[in-house]
């Protein structure tokens, strides 16, 4: 696959809601396909790439340029099921920064200004993604997830920023534990899904 076509789920210009870049404007490109299947996933409609149209990557690039954005966030699904080299190249030629959100289950393709690694227990991340990650964001649904977070912390570089993000549907149950954990382990920060509080995409 050359990456000149991608199964496009949706694209929109909005505000980043999570992690280090929360609050910044960005153009989002959601690509179809995911074989991990987290039970708490808020975009399960993205899992099956066959139900989403294959779109010319040049068209995606053109719409991002037309939006006036200075950065594009590629998400999924799991974006690295596809070769993203051509997409990144086209965006960067137009002075648009490239950000990606990935589980790390597949090898990297493309050139990225920021890599957010959100690893899942079903398919642990590969070494090259861990080493390249700028940000480690671990979803916390229960106490076991803190152990998973620390396991992945040992895999990323020292420059990688560390975030714990309460699972949205369990927020009321888990936020106290997350706060307590960060107070005892100050290398971690808390990531909140601020776009959901603001009720924007």
Provide the domain count: 1
Percentage of residues in DSSP E strands: 25-35%
Structural class: alpha/beta
Q: What share of the residues lie within helices?
A: 25-40%
CATH architecture: Alpha-Beta Barrel
Cα gyration radius (Å):
16 Å
Written overview of the protein:
- The protein is an alpha/beta fold and 201 residues long.
- It has a single domain (5-197), classed as TIM Barrel (Alpha-Beta Barrel).
- It has six helices and nine strands; from the N terminus they run βββαβαββαβαβαβα.
- The protein has helices at residues 57-67, 85-92, 127-132, 144-153, 171-184, 194-197, and strands at residues 5-15, 25-31, 54-56, 71-75, 97-102, 114-117, 135-140, 161-166, 188-190.
- A nine-stranded mixed beta sheet has the order 3-1-2-4-5-6-7-8-9.
- Strand 7 (135-140), helix 4 (144-153) and strand 8 (161-166) form a beta-alpha-beta unit.
- Helix 1 packs parallel to helix 2 (85-92).
- The longest helix has 14 residues, at 171-184.
- The relative contact order is 0.16.
Write a brief caption for the model.
This protein is α/β, with parallel strands linked by helices. 26% of the residues lie in helices and 25% in strands. It has one domain: TIM Barrel, CATH 3.20.20.70.
Q: Keywords, please?
A:
nine-stranded mixed β-sheet; 201 residues; alpha/beta; TIM Barrel; 25% strand
Write the layout of secondary structure elements.
Blueprint: E1 5-15, E2 25-31, E3 54-56, H1 57-67, E4 71-75, H2 85-92, E5 97-102, E6 114-117, H3 127-132, E7 135-140, H4 144-153, E8 161-166, H5 171-184, E9 188-190, H6 194-197
Parallel strand pairs: 2-4, 4-5, 5-6, 6-7, 7-8, 8-9
Antiparallel strand pairs: 1-2, 1-3
